Amino acid sequence: MTAKTDTRFKQVDRTMRKLGYERSALIESLHTAQEVFGYLEKEVLRFIAQRLSLPYSKVYGVATFYHFFRLKPQGKHVCVLCTGTACYIKGADKILAALERRFGVKAGEATEDGELSILSARCFGSCSLAPVAVFDKQTIGHLDEAATVEACERMCDDSER
Amino acid sequence: MIQSVEELESYAQQLRQARAEVQEEINVCMGTTCLAIGAEAIKEDLEACLAKKSSGRSCKVRPVGCNGLCAQGPLVMINATDESHCETIYEKVKPEDAQRIIDCTTGTGEACVKDITCQVDIPFFTRQKKIVLENAGYIDPDSLEDYIAADGYQALFEALSHMSPEEVINQVRTSGLRGRGGGGYPAGLKWDSVAKAVSEQKYVICNGDEGDPGAFMDRAIMESDPHRILEGMALCAYAVGASEGYIYVRAEYPLAVERLNRAIKQAEKNGLLGAKIAQTPFSFHVEVRLGGGAFVCGEATALITSIEGNRGNPRQKPPHLSDHGLWGQPTVLNNVETFANIAPILRHGGEWYAQFGTEKSKGTKVFALSGQIKHTGLVEVPMGMSLRELIYEVGGGIEADRAFKAVQTGGPSGGCIPADQLDLPIEYESLKAIGSIMGSGGIIVMDETSSMVEVARFFVEFCMSESCGKCVPCRVGTVQLYNLLSKFVNKEATDVDLALLEDLCEMIRATSLCGLGQTAPNPVVSTLHYFKEEYLAGMKDRA
Ligand SMILES: Cc1cc2nc3c(=O)[nH]c(=O)nc-3n(C[C@H](O)[C@H](O)[C@H](O)COP(=O)(O)O)c2cc1C
Ligand code: FES
User: Fold this and answer.
1) Residue B307 C-alpha to ligand 2 middle, in angstroms?
2) Which fold has domain B364-447?
3) Where in chain A is the domain with CATH 3.40.30.10?
4) Phi/psi at B425 (nearest 5 deg)?
5) Could you give the ipTM of this predicted complex?
6) Is A134 helix (H, G, I), strand (E, B) or coil?
7) What is the mean pLDDT of residues B129-133?
């Protein structure tokens, strides 16, 4: 697929146009790109660099600076575990360790079969529910190790059926 | 288009009357926490049950912002508009409760649904003083009409029509309001220096980055009452002579972004923002900019670099933002909560505001209570309240009645406060004096099950991964600090390590470029001071 035929590039272009193709439009454009593509592949970064007349190194540098931007595709299912202070105090570190053990990945990675990504985040602002994780779009609070592992397994199983 | 104070006032009157025609308001909390545990479904069920009802008292279901008692959510608040009886709050509501709530509220069932009624005469509610959060839980954040009915934009229109910019600054100065983002710099003073700066173009920026992991005050304000922030920013712009503004919000807060963007559109459409507001020469445009999940971007100079489209590296100050801010122009940068205080200050006067709080810390402060505390959630209390009152009365004490160990304020830049300091009043200076800071308002309560060395390491790990890498003391120092603390956690530390730990903290504090590095050792220094025995227990030969 090329930049000409893929309408997703048009959406990114729309953001840049709205901001007058100014160099300061870079971060907003990356946000739009991640939203429509799911992650920032090289081709998209190049496209943005070219349209904003920025060196590719600059675009890459900004994309890697901010944690929010992902340069790799995610697994089919995503579990984002909060590792903010309130969740930490209530045992999020142990939950993360249990997840890493069970699925053999580190936070930020996807399993080899591409089924599941385990991500960590710093505070969802739902600290009253600590420890909290978001499974695909569903937020679940008051978790423990077993419940979190089980919720991930369930998420993956559901799609097999 | 609303073009004058009079028009605004008569429109507000009209809206208030319309609101009063409904006898009972059924306000469903749609804050982030309640939404996460099913508020949406509850609202739909309430609406469906209400639609089937034809008799009884008239009701309206309204989505509202955070009520604060997040621990007991999902929450539904019933307000009688004729004040015949006081507010009823339903807690831990489930969709199947909808029918009973509607029956009781319309007056065809019992007075209230007893088993889910929340006690409202507890200190959690009675000891609070709501200024910033006055509308949270009462208005629909997506409704400009609701905000106007609650005297919204009145302060802005009054100021534009009857006050000079200097008078606005004077009111803010009289109020004694200090920055709520952590530093506590007087807002009036900051505005004054930008007002005095000579430039064609000036900017107003609202800091909604809320980087402290474990705090959600700003999020709740942005999500519950977005117009209040816009009004505060517009008043600031008028006072300093700016015509453009930005709100920098964390990308992790999509709901806040959505509500702010909607609010901006509504305000522009009605002539409350945009060109020639209230038929005066004053114009003000606001745009939202997304952050990218970098803690350092909450720092003022880094935030500005980020808005300009770069990696969020901070820079040396001076030059200060008041001379050289966004795109090199004079810029006011304040926190969300600071701006949220402005409209009430202008509406009631600076002196009114100054009556709350203490000599040097005026007004109220919003805190996010979390950790091992009973009433986790959001509260707003007058400055000067003691930490003990905040934790034991407002917060309801420690979960499962375990023993209190420490309270952490100020996030990664703050410190841990032990039990014997709990009677300290909450003020900028007093907290600093005992090695913590006010910070943005995250209060994390820890009980005997938490290890202080591990908590210190948690925060250092945070600063280590958030260091932007520009300066060596912070980039390398935090890694060294982390490794040293790990030795204590693993009970492998020696006397040399202990001495090194103290030296390293001082070095990082004294030589880092920006606030991130300068304050990163704080959690270590404060735990080392108050909980030294835990460090000693982490040493090889003494364990
Ligand atoms: C590392 C670091 C992170 C910060 N994060 C925030 C933040 O998330 N929100 C905020 O309002 N201020 C933050 N600040 C403080 C800002 O630099 C700035 O002082 C503040 O936004 C000014 O507004 P105020 O005077 O209204 O408090 C941070 C400072 C540092 C050094
Ligand atoms: S610390 Fe996990 S939601 Fe706030």
Assistant:
1) 26
2) Ubiquitin-like (UB roll) (3.10.20)
3) 77-160
4) -70, 145
5) 0.93
6) strand
7) 97
Any residues with Cβ below 6 Å from ligand 1, and which?
B 179-183, 185, 207, 209-211, 295-296, 298-300, 333-335, 338, 440, 514-516
Tokens (6 digits) for B428: 């900028």
- Map residue A131 onto helix, strand or coil: coil
| Among B34, B124, B223, B252, the residue to mutate for chain A (most A Cβ within 10 A) | B252
Residue A26 contacts B where some CB pair is shorter than 8 Å? yes
Span B33-48, pLDDT tens digits: 899 999 999 999 999 9
Helical H segments across B271-416, by residue range: 300-307, 336-348, 350-354, 387-388
Q: State residue B316's pLDDT score.
A: 93
Q: What is the pLDDT of residue A145?
A: 97
Task: Give the angle subtended at the CA of B130 by the CAs of B129 and B131, to the nearest 5°.
Answer: 120
Interface of B with A in 258-297 (CB under 8 A): 289-295
The count of other CB atoms within 10 Å of the CB of residue A42 is: 10
Q: Is B68 on the interface with A (CB under 8 A)?
A: no
Residue B386 is predicted with a pLDDT of 97
Q: Mean pLDDT throughout A84-113?
A: 95
Per CB-CB distance under 8 Å, the chain A contacts of B370 are 85-86, 89, 127-128, 130
Q: How far apart are CA A76 and CA B159, in angstroms?
A: 54
| Ordered DSSP codes for B153-185 | THHHHHHHHH--HHHHHHHHHHHT-B-TTSS--
Which two three-digit tokens encode residue B25? 């308001």
Fold classification of B20-122 is Glutaredoxin (3.40.30)
The residue extents of the domains of chain B are 20-122, 152-354, 364-447, 452-536
Residues lining ligand 2, Cβ inside 6 A:
A 82, 84-87, 123-127, 130, 132; B 213-214
Of A66, A89, A141, which is closest to B37 when you measure between CB atoms?
A: A141
pLDDT of residue B32: 87
Q: Say how many Å lie between the CA of residue B191 and the centre of ligand 2.
A: 33
Interface test mutation site (partner A, options B33, B296, B448, max chain A beta carbons within 10 A): B33
Assigned CATH topology for domain A77-160:
Glutaredoxin (3.40.30)
Cα of B519 to ligand 2 centre, how many Å? Answer: 22
Q: For the segment B181-225, what is each residue's pLDDT rounded down to a tens digit?
A: 988 999 999 999 999 999 999 999 999 999 998 899 999 999 999
Task: Please give the pLDDT value at position A6.
Answer: 86
Q: Is A69 on the interface with B (CB under 8 A)?
A: yes
Contact (Cβ atoms closer than 8 angstroms) between residue A66 and residue B292: yes
- The predicted structure's pLDDT at residue B268: 98
Tens of pLDDT along B376-427?
Answer: 999 999 999 999 999 999 999 998 889 999 999 999 999 999 999 999 999 9
CA nearest B331: which of B321, B317, B339? B321
